[in-house]
From TrEMBL:
One GO BP annotation of this record: N-acetylneuraminate catabolic process
Protein name per UniProt: 4-hydroxy-tetrahydrodipicolinate synthase
CC per GO annotation: cytosol
Family membership noted in the UniProt record: Belongs to the DapA family.
Source organism (scientific name): Pseudarcicella hirudinis
Amino acid sequence: MAIDWKGVFPAVTTKFGEDDQLDFPLFEKNLQFQLDAGVNGIILGGTLGESSVLSLEEKGTLVKFAVEKVAGKVPVILNIAEGATRDAIELARLAEEWGAKGLMMLPPMRYKSDHRETVEYFRATAKSTSLPIMIYNNPVDYKIEVTLEMFAELADLENIQAVKESTRDLTNVTRMRNLFGDRFKILCGVDTIAMEQLLMGADGWVAGLVCAFPAETVAIYKLTKTGRLAEALEIYRWFMPLLELDIHPKLVQYIKLAEERAGVGSEAVRAPRLTLIGEERERLISLIDGAIAKRPVLPEYHSIVV
């Protein structure tokens, strides 16, 4: 399956049971919830997927399970967040073997690579696989920026096709377009500026709160891209207090709590993360439940073609 890098791509959470094992029934329930809303792909093992605490075996099981349940409706994409280039290459090989149709890639973990090292990390991995790749550019959280100059050096690699734009600099969408035209597809990577990035020409949205509110996320995307801005803005303004959960250090706990309150997930996280307690949890529940109580009535968006 070739990937059309546009639309809404949920960075799904990993579901755990009380025994800290993978909760496949709940994972399947959320996958179906996303598909029913009309998402365009599924991303596994990202920040929200708690990649750093998943074993290699668990990643493989998750990919194969998702591929089976999605049944070709949308591509399944695996995130690569490795410290060693050889480990990134091996995970890319395994992802293809497991049935993933694409990769999302962060720069090297734990070591702050320089320009040359960052480019070579992406280049070596891309050359090792036939899978299409979306580079995850998030210098705020991961401390390495994939600069415009780096993208220029990677442009000859045909399978590096897209960027998850998470620099939080809106002008970067325009800079990418000015320099590269449509060579790289651009997907919003920060929920709180997603509509703005779409208006500036981004092709899609790698979303977080979509995990709990997929219909609203897809509706905003489609309405914005087809010029129905007043309708999109009404939903976006309602959504903003929830979208701000995506830019907090505890985004995993916050978004999982939102999934639980929406009836499509649980609060369970894997240590060292801990579930929320006390005033913090009560404050979040009040915010989430208050938003759910005022959930907007969505226009019929499934038939909108972008």
